[in-house]
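Q: Please design a sequence for this.
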């Protein structure tokens, strides 16, 4: 398993931007597909974005396409989620997650990921 630590959450006005970071403990970070999920109060955890282990492939939920960008820096063992044009409905706790090594899938769900961070809260005011 990989130890993951998110940071960068906070309170922002609608239309604003935030960048979330997720630092991973594994020296083999570059082997893992990484994902971001979010969970709003009273709702199920939902997929936001994923990036393949080599960074060549990215996936996004329809609700964030064109507004959020996932990226990774394998030299820094870090994955990022740049969030722009934020909306009140983006308010949630955001979680970073890692798959098993060299794992890929056509679509991603919580069950595809083996390791999870503790989450960072994002609140968007209207």
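A: Design:
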């Amino acid at each position: 398993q990989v130890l993951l630590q998110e940071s960068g959450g906070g309170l922002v006005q609608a239309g604003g931007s935030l960048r979330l970071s997720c630092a991973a403990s594994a020296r083999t970070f570059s082997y893992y597909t990484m994902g971001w999920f979010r969970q709003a109060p009273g709702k199920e955890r939902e997929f936001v974005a994923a990036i393949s282990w080599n960074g060549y492939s990215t996936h996004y939920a329809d609700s964030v396409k064109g507004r959020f960008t996932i990226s990774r820096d394998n030299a820094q063992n870090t994955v990022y989620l740049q969030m722009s044009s934020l909306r009140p409905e983006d308010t949630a706790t955001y979680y970073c997650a890692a798959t098993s090594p060299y794992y890929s899938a056509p679509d991603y769900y919580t069950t595809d990921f083996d390791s999870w961070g503790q989450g960072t809260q994002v609140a968007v005011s209207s």
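Q: Thanks. Anything notable?
A: DSSP finds no helices and eleven strands in the chain. Residues 31 and 101 are 5 Å apart (CA to CA).
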